[in-house]
Each structure stands twice: as C-alpha cells, then as structure tokens.
C-alpha cells in the first residue's frame, strides 16, 4: 500500500528506459507467440468476410444438437450453431436463395414458428472480400494519418516509435483472437481501430512531456536524454495508469458480464479487442514506444556528446538532477539515515 500511495503522489521513479532489454525481450516473446497463433490457427473470420448465410430464430426449448440436425437434414454440413440469449444464430456456407427459403421453412416447421420469424441473411463471398479490402484500406489510411500528424506535431522519430508500438499492439491483439478462436467480425475491426486511437493517445501524452523536458537539454546539461525521457515518463505514469483503469473497468464489465449473462455476441466481438488492446496499448506506450524513441535519439550527435561528457565525469555526474523523486525502496533508507543523524 505504501508504494501505491507514493505512486499516486508521483514520488516513485521507475527506470522504464533502463530496462529496455527486458521490455524488448518480453515484446519479442509476445510477438512470436501471436504470430505463431496467426500462422497455426489463423483468424476465425466471420461470415461478413468469408461469405455465407446466417439464420436467426427464437427457440428456447431447443438444444444445440436439435438445431444442428435440422440443418444437416436439409443438406447443410458446415453449420456453426451459436446462442445469443434465447435466440439461435446458425452460420452456414453460401446458399442460393432457394436453398435459404427451404431452410427457413424447415426451421419454422421444426420449431412451430411463423416463417417470417426466421431471419435469413445471404452474404456473398464477393461482398465479404469487399469488406476485407475496405478494412485494410481504412487501416492503411489511419496509419498514414498517424505518421503525418506525429511528424508535424513532434518529429519523425516519435512518429516511427508510435507506429511500431501500434503495429505491436495490433499483432498481439490479433494473436489473442487466433489462439482463443473468437470470431472476427466488423465489430472486431471497430474495436481494433478504437484501441489504435487509445494507444496513440497514450503515446502522444508521453511524447509531449518528453518533448517539453528534453527541450531544456544543452551542452551543460546534467542529464542525458535517456534520464530526461525517463523522468518525463514517470511524470505521466499515474495519468496513464488512471486512464487505463477507468477505461478498462466498463469494458471488462461488458466482456465478462454482458457476454456470459446476457449472451450478447456482438458485445463479445467488440469488448475482447478493447480489453486486450487497452492493456497492451498502455504497456507499449510506456515500455516499447519510449525506449525505442530513446534508442533513436541517443544516436544524435548532440545527445551523444552529453552522454559522453557526463560519463567522463564519473558516477557523481548527475548529482544535480532536479528530479526529487526516489526509486522504489529508497524512501525508507533515507528516512532511517535522517533519524540516525538526529
């Protein structure tokens, strides 16, 4: 609890940048696992992308085997049967209009329903391909807009670090879908675009503080770019954690309560992407984007000269750093020394 209070008051200085090898290793592991899931299992694309037919009807007394048998008796052998509350949603391969009508009649007869209460959506494969293409175009336009904005507002190195973090978030979130088998629908794509915006917001907040702090670095500076960036990151730490916590609580409620108790399939498609993306987005803005930016900036002659000058002065070169916060665990030892002096 003591660390929690100090973190909230901004008294904790976590060495995020100094542990960049740890973060890079963790990210590399997550990326390998995610890419492995995408290669081995692939994404479970919804009917909106692959084309097919969707039947929706209300039959509270039926069970999954009865519903599957109804469709198999009509010659459908690739039916995916799902429940959404007291309604059934059955996805099949692409059917002709006549086949769809015959199945609609069969379902109505088997479960004593009026035929017009059995909803049928016939989606062609060409339409699904068009949706996929538009999704990729939308993602490409979004990425280009991010690069242009960050380049104009900050600089190209910050834009590159932010885009790498965004791609990192997308791959890991997609890997979760691949391993879990959750269906990818248009609602999932909306979730993907939302988490990209969320991750970008977090990165911009951090980069803005870094830009403000590092603008003061000069030839006589007592801090390297690495140290200044790490201080700036710690100044925004509690804001990032609070924003993530406040945002993720309602999403978690939708994911774990809405989908299990209410059986809302569309909410599941959207909320899983948001839940995973927000967690990964916060991690990447703190532990991927900033360390990568520091790696790029420390190669510049100006900051390389500062680091070289401070390194030549020995371990005490940074005693004049104005940041008064102490690393975790240092406060107790400092207090003890003060008592001894008294």
Care to describe what's here?
The protein has two domains: about 1-45 and about 125-320, Multidrug efflux transporter AcrB transmembrane domain (Multidrug efflux transporter AcrB transmembrane fold, Up-down Bundle), CATH 1.20.1640; about 50-125, Beta Polymerase, domain 2. Mean pLDDT is about 80; it is low at about 320-340. The chain has helices at about 1-10, 20-40, 45-50, 65-70, 95-110, 125-155, 155-180, 185-215, 225-235, 235-260, 265-295, 300-310, 330-340; strands at about 45, 50-60, 80-85, 85-90, 120-125, 185. By secondary structure, the protein is of the alpha+beta class. The strands form two sheets. The chain has a four-stranded antiparallel β-sheet with strand order 3-4-2-5. Strands 1-6 form a two-stranded parallel ribbon. Helix content is about 70%, strand content about 10%.
